[in-house]
Amino acid sequence: MGYRIFVWVLKSFGVSPAYFLLRMVVSYYFLFSWKANGHIYRLYRNRLGFSRLRSVRMIYSNYYLLGQGLIDKVVMMAGISNKFSFDFDGEENLRRIATLNKGGILLTFSCSQVVDKELFYATVMSAAIEANREVKILHYLSQPADHPINIFHPEGAYLKGLVLYVN
């Protein structure tokens, strides 16, 4: 029921009100979920050696980040308009290397479910075209067996990579 409320708020009013609602939900769990809070507190206080105050702050932070991740996933998967953006880290380094006019083997990876296979390959191809370089795919890389992909959740195929020969 609570998840449906968040989805309705997101679709009806956008991301900001959903984050406001999230603060109320997080405050509730922070104040009244004693058993879970105790386990989290002991992790930070006893195992990781945080101070008492920092351990308490981390409990709140854990609940908030979990909720934020759920909201962001719904926003991205449902195509709800938002202010989120993403960039390809290191793309400028690939373009700079490509201008050196030397051949070689290049390994490139993405571990984002937002960047699907087609967008990842298109980005590599556009960099090759822009650099005026011949690039051959030697090997496709994907998730190992310990990261299986649920057939009903194709977004779970977030680990991808290419072994490239740049001529």
Characteristics:
167 residues, alpha+beta, 3-stranded antiparallel sheet, 3 strands, 56% helix, 14% strand, elongated
Q: Helices, strands, pairings?
A:
Blueprint lengths: L1 H12 L1 H18 L1 H14 L4 H27 L12 H8 L5 E8 L5 H15 L3 E8 L16 E8 L1
Antiparallel strand pairs: 1-3, 2-3
Helix pairs in contact: 1-2, 2-4, 3-4, 5-6
Can you characterise this structure?
With 167 residues, this protein is α+β, with helices and mostly antiparallel strands. It has 2 domains: 2-78, no CATH class; 91-166, no CATH class. The protein is 56% helix and 14% strand. It has helices at residues 2-13, 15-32, 34-47, 52-78, 91-98, 117-131, and strands spanning 104-111, 135-142, 159-166. Strands 1-3-2 form a 3-stranded antiparallel β-sheet, with helices on one face. The longest helix has 27 residues, at 52-78. The radius of gyration is 22 Å and the shape is elongated. The N and C termini lie far apart (56 Å). The relative contact order is 0.11. The model has no long low-confidence stretch (mean pLDDT 81).
